Structures are given as C-alpha cells and as structure tokens.
Amino acid sequence: MFCYQCEQTAGGKGCTQVGVCGKDADIQSLQDTLIFGLKGIAAYAYHARELGYKDEEVDGFMHDALFKTLTNVNFDLNDHLGSVLECGRINLKVMELLDQAHTAKFGNPQPTPVDTGTRGGPGILVTGHDLLDLYELLKQSEGKGINIYTHGEMLPAHAYPELKKFNHLAGNYGGAWQEQKIEFNQFSGAILVTTNCVQVPPPNTYLNRLFTTGVVSVAGATHLERGDFSMLIEKALSLPALPEAKGKKITTGFHHTAILGLADKIVAAVKQGKIRRFFLIGGCDGAKPGRNYYTELAEKVPQDCVILTLACGKYRFNKLDFGEIDGIPRLIDIGQCNNAYSAIQVALALAKVFNCSVNELPLSIILSWFEQKAVAILLTLLYLGVKGMRIGPTPPAFLSPKVFSVLQEKFDLRLIQTPQKDLEEILGVNRA
Ligand code: SF4
User: Fold this and answer.
1) Over the stretch 354-405, which tens digit does the pLDDT of each residue have?
2) Interacting residues of 121 by C-beta distance below 8 A, sequence separation 6+
C-alpha cells in the first residue's frame, strides 16, 4: 500500500503507523466509519436522484465529510465522533428522501403475499435494490410471455401498487445474495443485476445469461445501457422455460403507513399484555459462519413477541410460519435496508402513543451487518440516541477497541452472544 503522507510504501522503513502517518488509530477508525457511512448514503442518494429527488444538504455533507478525511486536515477525535453521528442524521434524511421518491412513483407499499414458486415459461430474475430498473423491465417485457421474478433485496418490490399491478411480476425466487451461485445456476432464465450484492466471479454456467446495469458491472457479463432491456428480453425468450412449481407464500410490504394502519390493534395488544415485546431483527446477510444466530433467535423469540425485519438477513427465517397475535402477524417484513426509515417512523409513533422515549419501548434491536448501507443505518440509530442495540455476527473491524468502547459507554452498544443468552438478558430486563 502506498502512503500519500510519506510518499513511501506503508509499513516500509521510517513508517511508524502503517498507512496512517500522523493519525492515531482511533481517528483512522472514525474516518473509516465515516467513509463507510458515506458509501451507504451515496447508494440511497443515487436511487433517489434517479427518481428525480435530490437534497443539497445531503450532497454538501458528503463533500465536507470526505474533505475531512484528507491527510493532515483534522486531528480532533471529538470532532470526528460528531461527524460520524452527523453522518447518521444525513443518512436518515436520505432514506426519507428515497422513501418519498419510491412512494411518489410506485405508491405506498401494502402488505402483499408473494409466491416463491415458478410459473411455466420463460423468466427473468432481477436482483439488487433498484425499483426503477424493475419497473422499466416490467413495462418493456409486458405481453411478451415472460415472467419476472425478484431475488434477494428486490422482494419488497411486490408490495408497491405500481409494480404489483403487472401480472407477469410472478414471484420471489431463492434467498439472500450469498446463495446466488446455487440459485442462479438452477434458474434457467436470464438474470439482471441492478445493484449489490453480486457474487463474483460468476461461474460459466450462467455468465452468458447474466446482465448488469447502472453502477454494477461484472467481467464477462453483458452490461446494459440504463433503461434499455431489449437484449435481456431477447435472451430470456431464447432460454429454456422454467417449470411450473408450487412454492410457499411470504408476505412483505409492511411500510410504516401499513403498520401504523394497525396501530390501534398493536397498542391494544400491548396494553392487554398480548404482545410482550418487539424484536427488530434486521440487516444484511452474508456467507460467513455465525449468522445462524439470527435464525435461531427468530425461532426462539417467545410466542407473545412480534418480529420486525428488513433487508436480506430475513431470508434465514422468512419462510417459517410465525403465526399471528390477535390478527397481527408475528413476522412483519418492513422491506429493504433503506426501509429502516419506516422502522424508525413506527418506533417514533409508538413512543408517542405510549408517551415514552424509543429507548423505553418494549423493543430490542438486533442487527446483522455486512456492507456499507448497514453501517450508515447503524449510525442513524446512534444519532437518534437508540441504546442497547446488539450487532453481529462479528465486531466491525473498522471500529478500533477505543471507538467501540466509547460507543458501548455512550450507547450501550453490544455484540451478539448466543440467542439463548441474549433472550434471557432482553426478557429479564423486560420483566424488571
Ligand atoms: S441487505 Fe445488505 S447484504 Fe443484503 S443485498 Fe442489500 S446490501 Fe447486500
């Protein structure tokens, strides 16, 4: 690695701190956190901008914050801590902007059961987070005898009225992104990747039917111009048909407007002691061991508790049957990672109804992190002063021991332990 400060190889003769001359490890850690948070904000700002929504404050913060990470500009630890929390505030703003953009274009999501089987005939599988790409593809493929399936984080698309109105939006296929190599192999149709997370390198078994668009590009796959899906459609029509196969139904689309529509029922169930606690089990999935924690936790959550979920970590448990409490589903899928905005709106609304702070609600937040949007969301929750969150499966490597201990002290941020131990602690606290 080349160090731009010393203009020599980092770690070479005369290098005192690998790659970070003049900066201590804690400032470096906060700058890394800031950069990861900015990457998350950039992703949301990109999707909002595509739909015509921009915000000068968001753009301005990105410039200022990136500038602050230049060599020899800012050596103040507290100032960096402030920037990291400000990054959380700006991420909240950009998630709100994206929610406005999505709902203005596609309508408010409504709880929608989604088929996980396949229909006989040609198919296209769409993965990533870009709803606009999916919409354009649905329009261009309508009436051509092709069925469109969502994969991974595209699942919540089925809940938006302007997307679900297309009859050939057939269902959700497979699970989270780390299963792509198996699932894309089994899917006989064409595949469109709109954003992360794409597994590389794709095997030759599906490389010639893999298409990318926008910022995504994979060597050997066909990259499409934005909004022109004719090559993809042509390819899908030339490929073997998918079989007719029955699947389970999974429900998505509990946008905050839908959950708040159930507010009276939820509040009554809490007051009557029928709902003891809410568990927000959300975040990214990944391939590393340790993530079965989240499945086990969801399975062990007591019957009088409700699980809220978002992002692709839910694929570990969203096909299980959790039942209902007084007509309220015990598993409520809020949507994509950016729909953390909806989860926050629900928490704020419940805090208002119960006349307490978010930290006093019977709510436990257990996050799985993998990529940068999850970091931005964590910073948003810290900015909002949410305490006692649990993160896993491992401590983020970019948090130095000192920075992590500051977060523990200030926000009671914890690492996951075992599902049993965490549940005992959470429910023990609840009983106190
Ligand atoms: S939730 Fe995270 S891990 Fe999953 S697809 Fe989205 S960005 Fe990737």
Assistant:
1) 999 999 999 999 999 888 999 999 999 999 999 999 999 988 889 999 999 9
2) 145, 146, 147, 241, 242
Assessment of whether the complete model's pTM goes beyond 0.90: yes
Q: Per CATH, the architecture of 112-238 is what?
A: 3-Layer(aba) Sandwich (3.40)
Is the CB of 337 within 6 Å of ligand 1? yes
The length of the chain is 432
* C-alpha–C-alpha distance, residues 48 and 100, integer Å: 8
Phi and psi dihedrals of 150, rounded to 5? -100, 150
CATH topology of domain 20-106: Substrate Binding Domain Of Dnak; Chain:A; Domain 2 (1.20.1270)
User: How far is ligand 1, taken at its centre, from the CA of residue 312, in Å?
Assistant: 6
Domain 256-431 belongs to what topology? Answer: Rossmann fold (3.40.50)
Query: What is the DSSP code (8-state) at residue 196?
Result: S
353 CA from centroid of ligand 1 (Å): 32
Q: Is the shortest distance between the CB of 130 and ligand 1 below 6 Å?
A: no
Domains 112-238 and 256-431 share a fold: yes
